[in-house]
Predict the 3D structure of the following.
Amino acid sequence: MRYSRLRAPRFVAQGLATVAAAALFLSPLLSESIRGQQQQQPERPGVQVGVPEGRAGGGAARQGGPGRGRQAGPAKPAPRGADGKFLLGGATPKEKGVWLPGAVVSNPLGLKDAPFQPWAKALLEDRQNNELEPHTRCKPSGVARQFLTPYGVEIVELPELERVFIFDIGGPHTYRTVYLDGRTHPANFSPTFYGHSIGWWEADTLVIDTVGYNEGFWMDRDGLPHTDKLHTIERLTRTDAAALKYELTVDDPGAYTKPFSWQMNLRWEAGTELFEYQCQQANYAGELMVGEFEKVDRTSFIVP
């Protein structure tokens, strides 16, 4: 025991000296190896959170740049179909792509200055403190919220059916139907997340008129409220091959004192299409839903 106490420091010192000598000898070799790996490994561009990289390759840095799947330099003209109208998808049936919002975290609409009724403004403030959003529980997201997920939307036109389908990517994997066959809204209908949408073309703009919404979704990322009296007009205009102008007019006398409008731009993500996404029921995204409380009681039904 005494021998160990006396000899241990000497062994430790010898071991440290050996390690130091080895490190001094190997450091040039390690540095050269690291530099070689850095040179061989290609720079990975910024990728929008959660979105698989488009087959066109490349990446969109958040600070700017042409964007993943988008051409560098001046934007190409928006593609047109045989009837002369702008196409809302690829220039050919084989060209894939989706429409993404301009930012992942921020809310491009920013409708905080809407003409709220007092109860609607109070509800918005509560939703911002307690993020109990239905979207995080696999519920469809109507109106502008459908376009504001980091996965974007895929728009499919079927002229032979006189319909346009807007597919939610991620989340509940639902889709919305826009009828272009000249029909009107039905006199009686059951309210749904997407409502009943009819559309028509005004020059190069697709106009979508929707009523029949339920109250089970948020209209945007911030929690913009609405009632079942909601009536929306959306206008989609493809300004070039890589950009889509989205304009929204909201008329909801149950939640606002007058109609109001806003707009944002979506960007084309070439080479990406619908992908498999599993949204699990009862996965309540607890880290997003605690809000101003220390915990949330999961034993009772939550109504956002």
